[in-house]
Write a structure and sequence with these properties.
The protein is an alpha+beta fold. It has seven helices and nine strands; from the N terminus they run ββααβββαβαβββααα. The longest helix is centred in the first third of the chain and has 18 residues. It is globular, with a radius of gyration of 22 Å. The N and C termini lie far apart (49 Å).
């Protein structure tokens, strides 16, 4: 269970580590990774994937944007604050699926792809997952092995969008601070991926309870109750 301290206010003091930190490249360029949380962020995701998959790999639009983008978490990697790469995470009952990894061609000499995958792995562990699943082109199997992945036993040939893929899985140890029903309620309402710092709902708890609009509702409902 995460450690707790006595809290006289309305914010959580549950100790929780962050899943990613800024990284400084040898040439002085910084890499940062964040969870997409706005329309502007999603526009960056679409732009990056459009440049990589639609343009470079000639992937049809309906296959790249497959209807799963609004039920998933997206990570955006930036180099010197310029959006440079992204990936998508979907969460199932007992595993997370890492997919749609894309890095703009001018940033492929950096460690961004590996940094994003490692961040996704740690973030999945914080959400309580110990298995991360992915579909990998054969030429990229050595890259996935750097994450600790292994090929799964082939069930049948996996082919889509004109490429062959191999199923791979990363198995990890449980995170000691994984989110669960034992976590502080205020932690669980923080923005996705930002569980290590207070969020807007948590900060709103500093205001007194006034139930705004309640008196109006009670007045409107009173005649109905009397009539009943």
């Amino acid at each position: 269970m995460p450690s707790m301290r006595c809290n006289m206010g309305n914010t959580s003091t549950e100790e929780r580590g962050t899943w990613v930190r800024p990284r400084l490249q040898a040439d002085g360029r910084s890499i940062t990774i964040r969870v997409a949380s706005s329309l502007s962020d999603m526009m960056q995701v679409v732009a990056i994937r459009g440049a990589v998959y639609l343009s470079e790999q000639s992937c049809p639009y309906d296959e790249e944007f497959d209807g799963n983008d609004f039920c998933a978490m997206h990570l955006i990697g930036s180099v010197d604050r310029e959006p440079a790469g992204c990936l998508r995470l979907r969460f199932f009952a007992d595993f997370a699926k890492l997919e749609r990894l894309a890095v703009r061609h001018e940033f492929r000499g950096t460690s961004l792809a590996l940094d994003m995958c490692r961040a996704a792995k740690e973030l999945s562990r914080l959400k309580g997952y110990t298995r991360i699943y992915g579909h990998v082109q054969p030429r990229l199997i050595p890259f996935w092995k750097r994450l600790g992945a292994r090929p799964m036993e082939a069930r049948r040939p996996l082919v889509f969008s004109d490429y062959a893929y191999t199923e791979m899985v990363v198995e990890t140890e449980p995170h000691p601070q994984a989110l669960s029903l034992a976590s502080d309620a205020y932690v669980l309402i923080r923005p996705e991926g930002a569980w290590d710092r207070p969020g807007p709902l948590e900060l709103s708890a500093g205001r007194p309870v006034t139930s705004p609009g309640r008196d109006t509702r009670d007045t409107q409902e009173a005649p109905n109750r009397q009539a009943a």
